[in-house]
Amino acid sequence: MRFILCFLALLAGGNAAAEKLTLDRIHADPSLSGPGVRSLKVSPDGARVTFLRGRDDNQFQLDLWEYNLKDKSTHRLVDSKILVPDENLSDAEKARRERARTASLKGILSYSWSPDGKQLLVPIAGNLYLIDVSKPDAARMVASGNVLDPKISPKGRYVSFVRDQNLFVIDLSNNKERQLTTDGKGTIHNGEAEFVAQEEMGQTSGYYWAPDDSAIAYKRYDDAPVPVVKRFEIYADRTDVIEQRYPAAGDPNVLVQLKIVSPVSGEIRNVDLGAEQDIYLVRADWSANGKALLFQRQSRDQKKLELVSVDAATLAQRVLITETSPTWVSIFDDLRFLGNDQGFIWPSERSGRKHLYLYDLNGKLLHPISSGEWGIDKLLAVDEKNGRVFVQSNRDAVIDSQTYALKLDGSGADKPTRITEGDGWHDSSFSRNGEVFVDTWSDPDTPPQVSIRRPDGKMIGWLEHNELNANHPYGKYKDAHLRTEYGTLKAGDGQTLYYSMIKPSGFSPVKKYPVYLSTYGGPHAQHVARKWGNFFDQYMAQQGFVVWRLDNRGSFRRERAFTDANYLNLGKVEIEDQLTGIEWLGKQSYVDAKRIGVFGWSYGGFMTLRLLAQASDKIAMGVSVAPVTDWALYDTHYTEQFMSTPKANAAGYVSAGVYSHLDGLKSPLLLMHGMADDNVLFTNTTRMIDALVSRNVRFELMTYPGGKHGIAGRAPQRHVYGNIEAFFKKNLMPDAK
């Protein structure tokens, strides 16, 4: 019997003598995932695939690479260090990168193709370069001085960008720069997305080219109504007093306008957004023929979203589609216009799951493109010639991401054809016409592999095979790699909850282990996914912890009944579901129910505090990083989507916050926060400190000078996770050496 148990332990836990991960190696070069790729794009002429890749000596310094589809060669196209040896970023660019979650990256973070596939537009460190792909070493600087959001116009005549809160164009036929707006200063911004649009609406741009280069629609906003929050940004050698216009829940938002400007004459025309000014302008697009500007207008309570069509010549307008919800209407990026005035594709969750619908240009529903008890993550491409629509979905497994083909005519709407192979996680990038796509696939045991494929899924070739062999950066740790198990539990209302678990090295079913419970728990995020995993999870399992994740109700990529469950009372059902998981864990023979600890960041930090406050009898300790402690302190669009306003839902805000539950917090707590966080303001933690002190609750605190919300940077990240490990070991493994 002992032999059988030892054999089973070897199978489950791997080779105990294999080399294990270290925190130093996790936070060193080269990346343990291998040569990763970002921002995959197929050139408009279909000749090459371009992508961004970190350097061997610095995975955070990105260069631009290409894969030639004709000769199947791969080489670096643009060396970022040659282009700009030393970056000096403006405050605006630093803030934009924080919004985009790219604050730790340097070099080339974005690029765009000219419509003929012969040139690339590359911004770096506030400067803008135009690069001929046939002569990439002869990069030409076309603009400088804190350039933001550069684009090549659809027909390729212009380069556009935002500088100093105004919109500019460069006519490439004569290289002349023209300033299209002049009133951008102080609280007035042109061509930009406001703070909450960037942070919460996925809005990366504030201006939109007409397809024939004849006009630009742009957002103009005035943030004068938004309250000024004075906060300290504490750095190692100084303290800055920042006056930030931060719209907390219930506060006034920016005043927004939509305008159209001619790049030739400079004439500006105003688009009527309606009588109600307290709205969100969440999207703007042009029809394929350029005759209509379409914008999406969301009510302040987010229960109504309208698609409005504006005649580009007369500015006459009409509402094409109105979406409503008793909770909130989600925002998507899946609006697509078909050629030859054939109509447009529109996403909607009206059925309870996200599906696609085909409309004519008058707003008449023609037919559903997809339907059934599954939902679409995003629309990837439309092949009008062959009548196909490509989408990404978790139809086959909630924890997976696959690519599927649907028929544009709506036949077989409930039976899409899966074109990606292998269970796990696929991210696909298609060419403009859908004739080729790049598939990035991984699973918990396979680092991301990138292949180029035809639309039926057949491989053309490897862009990055990334085999996990002896020469791979992770190769020496492969034998110590631990398997991730997946399963389901039932929530209180019967809905299915997905979990993942990694059992520790040398696992023995007759031993009892402590638990490292990692949580996020909030909307717009999925924590349990079958893909190449979190190295820290592997590390903690190798240190002797059972590593546990569970996606509670409210989490992302599920049906609306699942995501809407937390409406008006954030934290309630999320805590119930996490406790369901903790109760299940405590019943397992190999879990020590008295040694379960929880860690979370941001919404996960909020979850950690709520779990400790409501269940210190079940949770032995917690680490909370950058937590929201009072939802009245967080921004308008995110918070009001789930909680309404503090005035309309006063009791809900009290119940959702941490403070009304805080008397129950008895377990050890480590609280960490960046001291320059402009997203979850540091005030959340200073208020928590004061509340804990007033209750005479002892806790540990670690703050990071200059740290933003992500506490970016190799040394700070190494320190954060070193603290997490140490706190877990001190409280759950006091005898560990």
Q: What does the model show?
A:
The chain is α+β, with helices and mostly antiparallel strands. It folds into 3 domains: 37-146, Neuraminidase; 149-329, Dipeptidylpeptidase IV, N-terminal domain (Methanol Dehydrogenase, Chain A, 8 Propeller), CATH 2.140.10.30; 482-732, Alpha/Beta hydrolase fold, catalytic domain (Rossmann fold). Helix content is 17%, strand content 35%. The protein has 13 helices and 44 strands. Strands 37-38-40-39-41-42-43-44 form an 8-stranded mixed beta sheet, sandwiched between helices. Strands 1, 2, 3, 4 and 5 form a 5-stranded mixed beta sheet that branches. A hairpin with a 5-residue loop joins β37 (484-490) and β38 (496-502). α8 packs across α9 (603-615). The longest helix has 19 residues, at 714-732. The model is unreliable at 1-14 (pLDDT under 50).
